[in-house]
Amino acid sequence: MSVVEQAGIVPIARRRPRPTVRSVTVRAVGTVLVVALLVFMVGPLIWLALRAFSDIWPYPRFLPSDWTLKWWHSVFADKSLGNSIKLSFEFAPVVTVASAAICLPAAYAFSRLNFPGRRFFLVSLFATNAFPKIGLYISMAGVFYTFNLMGTFLGVVFVQLIGTIVFMTWIPAAAFSSVPRSLEEAARDAGAGPLRVFFRITFPLAAPGIFVAMVLSFLYSFDEAQGTFLVGIPNYITMPTEMYTLVLNYPEQAGAVFSILLAVPSIILMSLVRKHIMGGRLAEGFQLR
Amino acid sequence: MNESAAPAGLLVDHVSKDLGGRTIVDDMQLEVHAGELTCLLGPSGCGKTTTLRMVGGFLQPDAGAILIDGVDVSRLAPEKRPTAMVFQNYALWPHMSVFKNVSFGLRLRRLPRREIRERVEQVLELVGLMHHMNSYPAQISGGEQQRVALARALVLEPKVLLLDEPLSNLDAKLRVRVREDIREIQQRVGITTVFVTHDQDEALSISDRIAVMSGGRVEQYADPNTLYREPATHFVASFVGAMNFYTGTVGDGSVEIGGVRVPCDGVSRNGTAPVEIGVRPEDVQVSSDGDGAEARVLREIPRGHYKELVMQLGEGEVRAFVAPEVETSERQRVRFGRAVVYSDGVLQQPSGQPTDVR
């Protein structure tokens, strides 16, 4: 007896159309694709998890022959590793807040104001992502040396900011645009000045989109390695940059442990945002035509 | 006409507005007396909503002034004006409860907590929504949302209430009920009101006066009866209510249309030049004998409490509303109980009193 029947809900018998050769093929192909995708996406993660707990994993064996926690101990015992974790958690919030401070006003302007070159600027934000980053970083390094930003906290923040600007502007701009102007006008009508209208009406309604952008920005900063490595060494080694050293100097099991640690905040934050992306509360209240 | 100092109510004084290189409102003149409900009626694009938005302060007039109780408010921001608007889509704030929506303006004004609660309850009582005080906009029906929007506007006790097609999102039955509610509340509060609509039925049934707009100008500004009985222009006549229109000539007690002479009460000879003759379907008198031009019945359309006849009259058609019990044969005699006559689109007959075009 299935759980559904125990709960007293009788499933409605659906008369399925007789399966044809075609529908069976479509189903089969679909299933194969989904499974392939799953293996492709989850497979490496499983391998990583196994790796992190394995002591000896002789080549032809499907599973490791000995299990151990020693890699975890060695990672947590290493001072520089612990320090890099701490640093990552310092950079990510700073970059997120700085990015919000810079990009949110821009997002509002892109959404609500009409100024010459609006489209050009909006699209040009993509430019930073259109080229291989390393080229950009190398040329930036020159500028950073001039301003004594190399190897400084501020320099790392700057280099990480670059990558966050696109989505920190685009996503909130879309969120602002989704707030109907009439809601703002109604608040003006009720006696609120433009600033009040922004903080009482526009911002709360756009908040889910802004929140999503901030989480993405946090994750970006958390995972950014190239630019941080270039600008930050030797003073500021964050988790992703530490990976470089790790891969070179430690057995690969320690790298696996570290990868898992690096993924944990991402997973937690992503599952938080999921609720906001799927919620759709925003659309319900409007009677839009 | 009104040179006296500080007339109460709303005055839209020679206001013009261009948008996107097009003249939307063109030297518009409109006076709404205190406590009066005026409808701005017209087809889409006639400038009625633009006018309303200028009164509310959401648009700046290019020329002219807007006066409320004799005070020029043209340069004031919406939040500084003694107006309150009910938006077409209600524009309720989805993240606030009904209470928060209605009390928003009062909370901005930092009134004491108790007074806010009292006034909100009072106005929710007025629109009959006390039981939804803590609901969110998404949880109540369209008609209820509409009344919340009305309550939100009324609670601030504005001098002028502005309604922008407030009923267009409701279904037909509800529309009739809510418009009666709005009229009743408006009269009870005694608030000066401007109501924008493209629905002539709506305008006729709730207004003290109606301003029919076309091309950014007021074609006629009159009470519903005058508007219906004596439309000042051809446009008004064709926009408000059903009307048979013919080109023909007018004699004493008859009109000649398409070579057919039809007896008509209340018209007199006025030259030989062709004019526009309008006849309301209910003014078409149908009989099986007696005087009248001969007409052939083409269709008979039951309308419930009346019956619509479509008849061939000479080369044209004539529509008549008759009582449903009237027996009709194929051949009928037709005469007109009343007609309106236009020359160059302007009303010539009847010419009792000059209609107020202001």
Layout of SSEs?
The complex is a heterodimer of chains A (289) and B (358).
Chain A: H1 3-6, H2 21-52, H3 70-77, H4 79-112, H5 118-124, H6 127-130, H7 133-146, H8 153-177, H9 181-189, H10 194-223, H11 226-232, H12 239-249, H13 252-279, H14 281-284
Helix pairs in contact in A: 2-13, 3-13, 4-8, 4-10, 7-11, 8-10, 8-11, 9-10, 10-13, 12-13
Chain B: E1 10-19, E2 22-32, E3 37-41, H1 48-56, E4 63-68, E5 71-72, E6 83-86, H2 98-108, H3 113-126, H4 142-154, E7 160-164, H5 172-189, E8 192-197, H6 200-206, E9 209-214, E10 217-222, H7 224-229, H8 234-239, E11 244-251, E12 254-257, E13 260-263, E14 275-279, E15 284-287, E16 293-302, E17 307-313, E18 316-322, E19 331-336, E20 340-343, E21 346-349
Helix pairs in contact in B: 2-3, 2-4, 3-4
Question: Could you characterize what this model shows?
Answer:
The complex is a heterodimer of chains A (289) and B (358). Helix content of chain A is 75%, strand content 0%. By secondary structure, chain A is an all-alpha fold. Chain A has a domain at 79-280: MetI-like fold (Orthogonal Bundle). Chain A is globular and about 70 Å long. Chain B folds into 2 domains: 10-238, P-loop containing nucleotide triphosphate hydrolases (Rossmann fold), CATH 3.40.50.300; 245-344, Beta Barrel (OB fold (Dihydrolipoamide Acetyltransferase, E2P)), CATH 2.40.50. Chain B has 8 helices and 21 strands. Chain B has helices at 48-56, 98-108, 113-126, 142-154, 172-189, 200-206, 224-229, 234-239, and strands spanning 10-19, 22-32, 37-41, 63-68, 71-72, 83-86, 160-164, 192-197, 209-214, 217-222, 244-251, 254-257, 260-263, 275-279, 284-287, 293-302, 307-313, 316-322, 331-336, 340-343, 346-349. In chain B, β1 and β2 form a beta hairpin. In chain B, α2 packs parallel to α4 (142-154) and α3 crosses α4 (142-154). The longest helix of chain B has 18 residues, at 172-189. The chains are: A mainly alpha (289), B alpha+beta (358).
